[in-house]
Specification:
Length: about 140
């Protein structure tokens, strides 16, 4: 798997545990959302994993982009953490989380360490929920 990628909207960093996306622009439209998701999925090579989205530079995401992220953009994501800088990105992330209900565990954080802990705990719980029924078989 490729470890680093950039496009005109974001920087992608891939580790064995997660993909970290750092948004480098102030606004996103549908075209940007499609490119961001396409590039993320290309880096993941079909492997579902947790995603850390650093949206501290974002100021606006239009409705079409939000809808795309919520539907097609949620593929291959085990858990999602937003790294935010209140008040602006706090409002963006809360609006997204409250209007686009999903089965993917998602939460916003101001500290990267807390976001990473959330992703690790969530993935551990998901794995445990999958393994325990097999042990009782």
């Amino acid at each position: 798997m490729k470890k680093h990628h950039e496009n005109k909207f974001a920087v992608y960093l891939l580790t064995k545990d997660l993909i970290h996306i750092i948004y480098t622009v102030r606004s996103l439209d549908l075209n940007a959302a499609q490119i961001i998701v396409r590039d993320r999925m290309m880096m993941q090579e079909g492997v579902a994993m947790p995603v850390l989205c650093d949206i501290r530079e974002l100021r606006m995401v239009n409705k079409q982009a939000r809808d795309f992220f919520a539907m097609e953009g949620s593929l291959l994501i085990k858990a999602l953490a937003f790294l935010i800088a209140p008040p602006v990105t706090d409002v963006l992330s809360e609006f997204y989380l409250n209007t686009h209900k999903s089965d993917i565990p998602s939460k916003s954080f101001t500290l990267k360490s807390e976001a990473l802990n959330f992703l690790k705990r969530t993935v551990s719980i998901l794995i445990l929920g999958w393994v325990l029924p097999l042990l009782n078989y």
